[in-house]
Amino acid sequence: MDHPANDIASASDVLAFHHLGLAVASPEEAFRYLAALGYVAGNSAYDPIQRVNLAMRHHPVMPDVEVIWPGDGPSPIDKLIKRTGTMIYHLCYACPNAEQALDVLAASGIEIVPVSAPAPAILFGGQKVSFHHVSGFGLIELLETGA
User: What is the pLDDT of residues 42-59, one digit of tens each?
Assistant: First the structure.
C-alpha cells in the first residue's frame, strides 16, 4: 500500500464493510420486511458454537443483512432480544488479516476488547470470524478473507 504521508495503513485500507447483523427473537417478520425491500435469501445455517440460527439476505444496492435468532441453549443474543426484541447486533467488516486490522485500529487510538477468538464460520464457508467490542461504538465482527 502506498501512503504518501507515512507508511501506516488506515482502517479503510484493511477493512471493508461486509454486512450488518440483526438480532431477532423470531425471523419471520424481519424476512418479510427485507423481502418487501427487495432482499433475497442467501446462505443459512445453525452455528453450534454460538447456538444461534443465521440467515443472510442480499440486495443489489443496499447492505447485506445477517438475521440472527436463538437456537437451542443459551446464546450471545438472548439478553439483547429480551430487552429490545430486535436490534442491530453488530457490523461486520471483511479483512485479509484480523490481527493486522486490529493493530491498525489500535494505532488510531481506538480501544478494542476481544469478545471471541477467530473461529471458522459455517455461514461463510469456514472463513474465520472474530468479535470485538469497540469502545464508544459497539460490537464488530471481523471476517478474515485472507485475500
Answer: 999 999 988 999 999 999
Q: Which CA distances in Å does 103 have to 18, 31, 34, 117?
A: 19, 36, 35, 15
Q: Which residues pair with 56 in a beta bridge?
A: 66
Please tell me the predicted confidence (pLDDT) of residue 91.
97
The CATH number that applies at residue 61 is: 3.10.180.10
Cell readout for 35 is: 423481502
Contact in structure between 130 and 114 (CB atoms under 8 Å): yes
Global pTM reads: 0.87
CA distances from residue 119 to 20, 29, 50, 68, 102 in whole angstroms, order as listed? 19, 30, 11, 17, 16
Number of domains in the chain: 1
Within-domain flag for 108:
yes
C-alpha cell at 61: 444496492
pLDDT tens string 63-92? 999 999 999 889 989 988 888 888 899 999
Which grid cell is 46? 445453525
